[in-house]
């Protein structure tokens, strides 16, 4: 609750939340407002600049940039949310188990985390993602979650290690409370604000991961669109037909910026030393 | 000291071996080299494809671990196998490794160097305009995905060159092909090609290093030993340089190895977008083709680079913090 209160007091976080609301509205309500869908092709308007008919203009084959960007943004928002939830749950489980149980559980889990951290995550994504092509974007989301929880798990483990020694945890243990109950009742509530902050930041990391992957042709495949493929398709004409490049890129930048504004505010109140990997 | 070195070497060998195994198994399971041969026209018979794959050591009928064993045995003798085109992976590695090492090292050094200096400067000027401006700027940079940063830099350079009416900043390749001229002309040419990829790789690290260094320096600024140093008659600047900087750099060594991962990923993007024939662009091409041997070779390079960065971080910590030397 204190985390939420700190959000409402920070203008930066409020700006971030407002931006996020607008982006959500655009991505999910926008398609109903516009008369074009992402798959529609308007043969009378090829590479048309923004006007009353096509609010964000059209691309080279006459698809509406407004509808396509909304479609891509939907995917990014869903992937971001899924990865944040799945990755954080995974990090919380592994981190608390390693920190609380110690011994060989700790050693095995720490080794696993270190091993996964040696590989640059993007390289693994590039190799594995194309083989999941048939499963579509939920598979990419799963893969991004599987590659994104390790740093958080490490930080959670360190906190769990110190919490374990607190008198009230020792008291609970002496009274014979079962370990899983201690984790649930005494450890997780303490970790919650920290986990929320990391979940927010991992949204940005996941969206950057997915769009980069799609940009280089390893992620979402045509005819489906993602912000990454939209940016890739318009890169060469960014200066001649700026609207094709500007809108998807602008939405991506706004989204990451908004998430970071909220995430940094949360993190700044909690833990200034937490490390993050920016890809 | 010899004990420490031996343990380091054992750990490096183990990590390299495990990451080679990991890369080989993942690449073999996920990539499909068959398609590369089957898509030729006229479509070759299955037995011919099998034969070609077997010659490359990619025979799908043999278990992965047996193939890895065979590959590892050859690799230990200095042969990383052949690419799908039948050329030597070693030769390709040799051609490309220099390009990547140049980008990685210049990127790491500028990123860490400028980042640390900027962080110290911001901490000293805390709350004033330069500090605030830098906080906002680094926050903005960290919110731009690396590939978008590269594209924006490229567009910026294009517009700039157009405005000046003369190609000042080059954005394709790592040198102008067939360019003659003396040593300095060559050097200038290289530098004008190096500018944008280096900026792509370094800007993100400058931003993140400066934030961590700012926090670390602020911690030190209030420390007792710094006040003592000033009481002995050192100026605040000298005291910070001689006694503060060293202490504040200690926590940064941990960040160095993490930060390197980001630099590495950034260099893959930069190579691909700016058309550098380095390890990163090789990796992306090979992954697209299903070229298992090349993918494993670049993964090995990545693992070696990351491990090396970890060792450099350890060495820096060793040099900075006498307590670690025990």
UniProtKB/TrEMBL annotation, chain A:
It is found in: Cell inner membrane; Cell membrane. Residues 77-263 form the ABC transmembrane type-1 domain. Keywords: Cell inner membrane, Cell membrane, Membrane, Peptide transport, Protein transport, Transmembrane, Transmembrane helix, Transport. CDD domains: TM_PBP2 (cd06261). It holds the Pfam family BPD_transp_1. The keyword Cell membrane applies. PROSITE patterns: ABC_TM1. SUPFAM superfamilies: MetI-like (SSF161098). The chain crosses the membrane at residues 77-101, 108-129, 135-156, 187-208, 243-262. Its main location: membrane. It is a multi-pass membrane protein. Belongs to the binding-protein-dependent transport system permease family. OppBC subfamily. This is Oligopeptide transport system permease protein OppC. It comes from Streptomyces kunmingensis. The lineage of its organism: Bacteria, Bacillati, Actinomycetota, Actinomycetes, Kitasatosporales.
TrEMBL record, chain B:
The chain crosses the membrane at residues 12-31, 103-124, 136-153, 249-274, 294-320. The keyword Lipoprotein does not apply. This is ABC transporter permease. Residues 97-313 form the ABC transmembrane type-1 domain. PANTHER family: ABC TRANSPORTER PERMEASE PROTEIN, DIPEPTIDE TRANSPORT SYSTEM PERMEASE PROTEIN DPPB-RELATED. Keywords: Cell membrane, Membrane, Transmembrane, Transmembrane helix, Transport. It comes from Streptomyces kunmingensis. It comes from the Bacteria. It holds the Pfam family BPD_transp_1. Belongs to the binding-protein-dependent transport system permease family. It is found in: Cell membrane. It is a multi-pass membrane protein. The keyword Membrane applies. Its main location: membrane.
């Amino acid at each position: 609750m204190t985390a939420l209160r700190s959000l409402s007091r920070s203008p930066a976080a409020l700006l971030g939340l407002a931006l996020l609301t607008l982006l959500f509205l655009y991505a999910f309500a926008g398609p109903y407002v516009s008369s074009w869908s992402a798959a529609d092709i308007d043969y009378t308007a090829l590479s048309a600049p923004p006007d009353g008919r096509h609010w964000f203009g059209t691309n080279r084959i006459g698809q509406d940039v407004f509808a396509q960007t909304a479609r891509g943004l939907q995917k990014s928002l869903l992937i971001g949310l899924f990865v944040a939830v799945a990755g954080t749950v995974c990090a919380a489980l592994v981190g608390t188990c390693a920190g609380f149980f110690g011994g060989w559980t700790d050693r095995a889990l720490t080794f696993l985390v270190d091993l996964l951290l040696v590989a640059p995550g993007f390289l693994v994504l590039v190799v594995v993602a194309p083989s999941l092509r048939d499963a579509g974007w939920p598979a990419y989301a799963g893969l991004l979650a599987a590659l994104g929880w390790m740093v958080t798990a490490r930080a959670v483990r360190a906190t769990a290690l110190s919490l374990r020694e607190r008198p009230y945890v020792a008291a609970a243990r002496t009274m014979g409370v079962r370990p899983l109950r201690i984790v649930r009742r005494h450890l997780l509530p303490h970790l919650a604000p920290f986990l929320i902050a990391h979940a927010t930041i991992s949204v940005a990391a996941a969206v950057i991961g997915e769009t980069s992957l799609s940009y280089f042709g390893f992620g979402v495949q045509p005819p489906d669109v993602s912000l990454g493929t939209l940016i890739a398709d318009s890169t060469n004409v960014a200066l001649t037909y700026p609207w094709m490049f500007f809108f998807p890129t602008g939405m991506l930048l706004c989204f990451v910026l908004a998430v970071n504004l909220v995430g940094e505010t949360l993190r700044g109140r909690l833990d200034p030393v937490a490390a993050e990997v920016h890809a | 000291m010899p004990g420490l070195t031996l343990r380091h070497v054992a750990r490096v060998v183990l990590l390299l071996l495990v990451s080679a195994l990991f890369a080989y198994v993942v690449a073999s399971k996920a990539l499909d080299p068959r398609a590369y041969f089957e898509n030729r026209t006229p479509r070759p018979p299955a037995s011919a494809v099998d034969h070609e794959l077997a010659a490359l050591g990619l025979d799908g009928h043999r278990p992965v671990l047996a193939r890895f064993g065979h590959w590892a045995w050859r690799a230990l003798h200095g042969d990383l196998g052949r690419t799908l085109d039948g050329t030597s992976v070693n030769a390709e590695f040799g051609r490309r490794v220099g390009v990547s090492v140049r980008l990685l090292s210049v990127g790491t050094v500028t990123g860490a160097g400028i980042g640390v200096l900027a962080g110290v400067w911001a901490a000293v000027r805390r709350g004033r305009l330069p500090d605030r401006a830098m906080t906002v700027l680094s926050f903005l940079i960290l919110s731009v995905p690396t590939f978008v940063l590269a594209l924006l830099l490229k567009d910026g350079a294009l517009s700039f060159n157009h405005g000046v009416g003369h190609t000042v900043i080059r954005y394709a390749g790592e040198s102008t092909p067939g360019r003659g001229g003396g040593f300095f002309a060559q050097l200038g040419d290289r530098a004008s090609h190096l500018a944008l990829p280096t900026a792509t790789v370094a800007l993100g690290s400058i931003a993140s290093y400066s934030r961590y260094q700012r926090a670390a320096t602020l911690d030190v600024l209030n420390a007792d030993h710094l006040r003592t140093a000033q009481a002995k008659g050192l100026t605040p600047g000298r005291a910070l340089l001689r006694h503060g900087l060293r202490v504040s750099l200690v926590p940064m060594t941990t960040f160095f190895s993490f930060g390197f991962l980001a630099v590495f990923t950034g260099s893959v993007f930069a190579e691909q977008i700016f058309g550098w024939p380095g390890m990163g662009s090789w990796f992306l091409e090979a992954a697209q083709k299903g070229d298992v041997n090349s993918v494993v070779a670049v993964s090995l390079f990545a693992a070696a680079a990351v491990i090396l960065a970890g060792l450099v971080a350890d060495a820096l910590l060793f040099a900075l913090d006498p307590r670690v030397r025990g």
